[in-house]
Amino acid sequence: MPTTDATPTSCPKSEVSTVYHNINTCQGGVKGRHSSKHLTHLYLLYLTDPTDERRDELFKASMARLKKTVRYHVHCRGICPSFMAPDIFADDSWSLAIEKFWRGMCSLDRPRQLPVWLDSVAYSAVVEEYRTRVRRIKEGPVRWESMEKEVSGDGD
User: Fold this and answer.
1) Phi-psi region of 22 (alpha: psi -120 to 50; beta: other; left: phi over 0)
2) pLDDT tens digit sequence for 52-61
3) Which of 98, 116, 96 lies closest to 23 in space, CA to CA?
């Protein structure tokens, strides 16, 4: 699949305004603190010498990548129910992504896979949250209807 590194998408939010269609550059092409190599390096450092400082630094970098990737999928790729505000949906998806992060972190055994794994956690959280909100059944989406309460004539 060819990358579209030369053409940024137009996104409504300033923090994701320079995001490209390629998921590998969804962090705005940053080559410093939030790059894939930096995350891998932090994870290797933590595995070799697991101190609280290294754990906190790895956690902060992972959360920053996770949040930006969730926002990328919601704002730039448009994975959001039409009846919800994208910011609210992104926050709900990010909460689910954090939960998925904690459940799956212990199963990650290859440090080089951390950035790819974080991206897949973010994507699956957004899709799962979308499916939860839209709630499909065989005939189509669920429609909310008001329920009429029957009132008896004797005042009960």
Assistant:
1) beta
2) 998 899 899 9
3) 116
